[in-house]
TrEMBL record:
One of its GO terms (molecular function) is RNA binding. InterPro entries: KH_dom-like_a/b, KH_sf_prok-type, KhpA. It holds the Pfam family KH_KhpA-B. A probable RNA chaperone. Forms a complex with KhpB which binds to cellular RNA and controls its expression. Plays a role in peptidoglycan (PG) homeostasis and cell length regulation. Belongs to the KhpA RNA-binding protein family. This is RNA-binding protein KhpA. HAMAP family: KhpA. It is found in: Cytoplasm. Forms a complex with KhpB. Gene3D superfamilies: 3.30.300.20.
Length: 75
């Protein structure tokens, strides 16, 4: 899942080397934290959060196979 998130975000940002995805797993959910360069945050979130919502939709759909709920936080 980490590689999927990195693959989606990499073309959107100017500093792809600074993409950091961390994973925290709990008993009924998995939380992914996405960190990008401070100048790229707006590009990842998009106008009115549209890009962030699209990224989350793809990640949630890919995580449907697992029995745990998937969350994506953009830092």
């Amino acid at each position: 899942m980490k590689s999927l998130i990195e693959t989606i975000v990499e073309p959107l940002v100017d500093h792809p080397a600074e993409i950091v995805v961390t994973e925290r797993e709990e008993e009924n959910k998995i939380v992914y934290h996405l960190e990008v360069h401070e100048n790229d945050v707006g590009k990842v979130i998009g106008k009115n959060g549209r890009i962030a919502k699209s990224i989350r939709t793809v990640v949630y759909a890919a995580g449907m196979k697992s029995n745990k709920k998937i969350y994506l936080d953009i830092m």
